[in-house]
Design brief:
Layout lengths: L9 H4 L1 H27 L7 H14 L8 H19 L9 H16 L6 H4 L8 H29 L4 H7 L5 H9 L4 H30 L3 H4 L3 H20 L2 H30 L9 H19 L6 H10 L3
Helix pairs in contact: 2-3, 2-9, 2-10, 2-12, 2-13, 3-10, 3-12, 4-7, 5-13, 8-9, 9-10, 10-12, 13-14
Length: 329
Amino acid sequence: MVQARFSWGGYFGAIIPTVLNVFSMQGFLILNCIVGGQTLASLSTRLDDTLGIVIIGIISLVVRKYCLDPNVIAFITMLAVGYPQLRDNQSAPVSPATVAEIISFASILASSILSWCPMTPDYGVYHSPAASSARIFLYTYLAFFTASVTAHTLGAAFAAAAPNVDTWNAGFNNSSSVGGLIYSVLLPTGAFGKLLTALVALSIPSACAPTMYTFSTSFMAVAPWFAAVPRWVYILISEGILIPVAIIGAKRFYTTFVDILNIIGYWSSVFSSIILTEHVLFRRASFSEDHILSRLGLRILFCLVVFPRLWPSCAHVELLFRSCRKLGM
């Protein structure tokens, strides 16, 4: 967010993306906590989504550096166990996708990736200044590409096949429980499947911990007096918001998921475009370059060109309802 001050008109202009980033990080925390809580709750009838969310939220608060990543093993096992059902689902009749559905799906994928743009600089500070920019870009791009394509493809495949497999559909619970779908796919493996499901759930805090860190540092960048507050205070604030909102959002997971990603995608797409344009076009890919024209020009571009065309295109249900009502529909 400090770097954004160059392209967002200085200190006061950068407050806009900084505040938006605070909300975005909290949104991702809510989604991660819901998924982790549902996955944990699928293991036993004594657990429900609420208790699972509380457990994942508390672990995310206290775990800072410990990272457990059994997801690769879980994905491979899911493919091995679920391959027959995935193969049979290829011949299942489906209605053709509309243009709107394709664009909406693409925008969700893009927003989930572009939202890393305001987050990754918090961790790029650990790179040596002498490191090759091309190598850092290549490593970062390949990491995002490999992880995102794999996870999105597997998720789409199993979610699409779930309605045609009774056990999967029951676990998926009408597209409202990702954790239930994971457990139902791994169910034939017995105790090993339960172990993998538990490990996947407990790996969620490793993604929540850095998100909480960025939430706190973004809060500190809003104004000087915010920076005077200890970072752990913001983490406690995040935790206090996270658990109750995640419990409520879990009851309508799909709607919560789409709404949060829509909000994040709208502003992060604009933010990423402005940052990229400023760095490549005006700075010529060098942090030593600085141009007053870039600061003024990009603000004008956002205010007069980008945002007025972005807002009418937002898929807001209420705006659509009002438009239809005025048309007498």
